[in-house]
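Changelog-linked ticket: guanosine-5'-diphosphate example.
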Amino acid sequence: MSDKKLNEDVSKRRTFAIISHPDAGKTTITEQLLLFGGIVREAGTVKARKSGNFAKSDWMEIEQKRGISVTSSVMQFDYEGKRINILDTPGHEDFSEDTYRTLMAVDSAVMVIDAAKGIEPQTKKLFQICKMRGIPIFTFMNKLDRDGREPMELVSQLEDVLGIEAYPMNWPIGSGRILKGLYDRHNHRVELFEPGVEGRHFLPLDDEGNIKGDNQLEGDSIYDDAKEEMDLISEAGNEFDPDKIANGDQTPVFFGSALANFGVQTFLDAYLEMAPAPGQHQTLQDKEIQPIDEKFSGFVFKIQANMNPHHRDRIAFVRICSGRFEKGMDVTLDRTKRDIRLSNVTEFMANTRENVKTAVAGDIIGLYDTGNFQIGDTIYTGKDEVTFEKLPQFTPELFMRVSAKNVMKQKSFHKGIKQLVQEGAIQLYTTYSTGQYILGAVGQLQFEVFKFRMQNEYNSDVLMEPMGSKIARWIDPEQLDEKMSSSRNILVRDTNDDPLFLFENQFAERWFKGKYPDVKLTAKL
Ligand code: GDP
């Protein structure tokens, strides 16, 4: 395989995640994208997964749904000469550290916002992770077919709430029942909204930005208003700045309706023009690994446990950072320096055609794992050691006390906890006062997976007592005095033996800061 071919293949890759608050329309938009990619059959599977009104306790059923979820958590398709990988970042009960870590494996993000609701909490959290990574973020203001907030308000919310410059690529002409179309300054045209009419219809603009020739929008006050706003933005708004977009300091904003399939393809086309191909990755050996390096490398960003007790295996999701994956290849697992043959692998090709079945930098592969991999592991080929930077840990917000139901089974309890914590599935803390175990997670699902796996993989029934949400803040051991612990906080140590307080609420944290003004408290990401 020549360099040229690898170069070509890599430059076609666009790997991104869609971030949003539940119900903003992520699933609907994903389905539209899959339809453009010709993955008609697959589109239903996204819905199937979503319709999960399952009882939370019923893991077998969840596993059945998850059978779909495993493959739909990475969706790959071809569109207009590009190979697109969409990584799912679940919301709701599915929310976990995985959701955050998935954002470590993408090259850009699409932020979907419900135009009636504006920016919601989950969007904000996910946005902050993308911002921290400095990746490009594209915004889709969804549900334009309904009455929503004023477009001006939505755009300024991006700046005021998220602190990112906004650059509207198009502007709605009305909304809800009076939605007429999009004034598309990027493509220099008006896109008409014509429900029930096949295909997309455009009216080209002249050099002044007016619609050329006679048209149905002439003299329409809704169009005039939209045009006026767009003119105002062109004069007084932000300048289009590709460098800022590349660093995540400016977000191109698109309007549309996923449900009405309006503006989605316009968005996708513009997105593909602007979104980056896979970039370089920094290593702890102080090297920059280029995606077109012939040597293969990648890192594990997510491990999905198989909930079926008959099949203990798990899937380790690997983002390929360089080179080309070949089935059966031997790689070095950096953490242990042992060689592992990659023979049992899933590729996430939705439209499988044998001749295109190849994975290169930018793609995701799923390794069937029997316990070799941990989150954050690097794998590579070649003699030179490669260790990608550690994946960040996220501050847990939910906590549970945990103990073994059967005191006679302490051994399996400890073994299970140790392994699951190592795998990165959950955080473990030990109280200073009594040495009791406390688990921390960013989402409820992590606890449920933990409980289920303890039972099924380690034959250990656990007792879990919810403690609700807490604020975790680390303290410099030098500054720690155990007397600082009070009824409003719990002093614990993490698995690195670093001390931290779990504060009951912000009030308790503020009270502490007032009492110990010289003590520095830090959060993780
Ligand atoms: P997710 O939770 O972000 O994946 O949201 P879904 O895609 O499941 O959408 C949530 C709800 O909003 C569903 O009932 C969708 O049919 C609806 N929805 C999504 N996009 C639009 C849209 O553009 N217009 C309207 N009116 N409803 C939409």
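Closing comment: Example verified and attached. The radius of gyration is 25 Å. DSSP finds 13 helices and 30 strands in the chain.
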